[in-house]
Amino acid sequence: MTPRHQASLRPHLRPSALAAILVAGGLIVSGCGEKAPASDAADAIDACTVLTGADVDAVLGSAVGDPLARRHGDETFWLSTCHYQAETGNGILSAGLTLKPHGVADGPLKAYADYETALIAELGDGAALTPVTGIGERAGWQYFGTPVGQLTVFQGPYQLILTASATAGADQLANAKALAERVLQRLNPR
Question: What digits encode the pLDDT tens for the residues 138-172?
């Protein structure tokens, strides 16, 4: 396949959706709310150790290659990302995880509220999270009207943002939830 054809398989984002994702990313990096004391800092975790290629293969139904992984920060504030991608006959399937400590001393419910308040302040009422039950301590979905939506989950000291392509058997949210369940099992082993 030529590079031109490969580029045509990639999802195209509207400028407004891309702006929303970039602002949300800025909010992730800057954090919200009253910061937790350093002694309450969440352990740094490599996102690719809690979201594996096997997880993505199972949920998306297609073999993915090696992940694109990034880690930023230090022990007091860090951000780890892991992104998988598979080229199929129908286009590109992808899934990813951004993992960071939410850093809010009052816990995940307050962190969720602060995060949503900041999203709305930056992007307007349309950026409000749609509550998602049954996953994490608090979770919300953002659909941008593109092939990229995101599930934000707050669990313990962590904020997780998961993205997943829709497949023939499930939409983006269902696939993101399935991945989140696998990630949370590794974050909270019982």
Answer: 999 998 777 778 999 999 999 999 999 998 889 99
Residue type, 8: S
Residue 70 pLDDT exceeds 60: yes
Pairing assessment for the beta strands 91-101 and 130-131 based on DSSP bridges: unpaired
DSSP state of 167: B
> d(Cα 159, Cα 154) in Å, to the nearest integer?
5
pTM score, whole prediction: 0.78
Three state DSSP letters for 87-99: EECCEEEEEEEEE
Q: Strand pairing partners for 86?
A: 93
DSSP 12: P
DSSP reduced 3-state for 136: coil
Q: What is the DSSP string of 31-99?
A: --SSBPPGGGPPPP--HHHHS-HHHHHHHHSS---S-EEEEEE-SSSEEEEEEEEEEETTEEEEEEEEE
Cβ neighbours for 29, distance < 8 A, ≥ 6 positions apart: 72, 79
Residues 6 or more apart from 26 whose CB is under 8 A from it?
A: 122
